[in-house]
């Protein structure tokens, strides 16, 4: 089995577990940079982020299994996952996170 196949599969498992903990178990503290004062709806924020993490992880699992059963495609599929799917899902997740900003939060600009 190719190392890229193992890495893709394990990344999928990790993202799936992380998404479960954030989205289903409602533990948003596992998200780096999370601050409850900046989020208006913590449950919705957790659900949105967790489900997107689980979707990315599921795609990683499917990609890893596909690489395993069709070994001729392992390089193309592995690169496609890490260079296309993960960035697209990351942008989708971050854009959706903006809906849950607390009123008055300026989006990261520091005020002095």
Quickly describe the structure:
The protein is mainly alpha-helical.
Task: Kindly provide the radius of gyration, computed on alpha-carbon positions and rounded to a whole number of angstroms.
Answer: 16 Å
The low-pLDDT segments are none
Distance between the termini: 55 Å
Instruction: Give the strand content.
Output: under 5%
> What structural class do the secondary elements suggest?
mainly alpha
Strand/helix succession: HHH
Overall pLDDT confidence: 90
Assembly state of the chains shown: single chain
Topology:
Blueprint: H1 3-24, H2 42-69, H3 74-97
Can you walk me through this structure?
- By secondary structure, the chain is an all-alpha fold.
- The chain has one domain (3-99).
- Helices cover 66% and strands 0% of the residues.
- The chain is elongated, with a radius of gyration of 16 Å.
- The protein starts with a helix and ends in a 15-residue tail after the last helix.
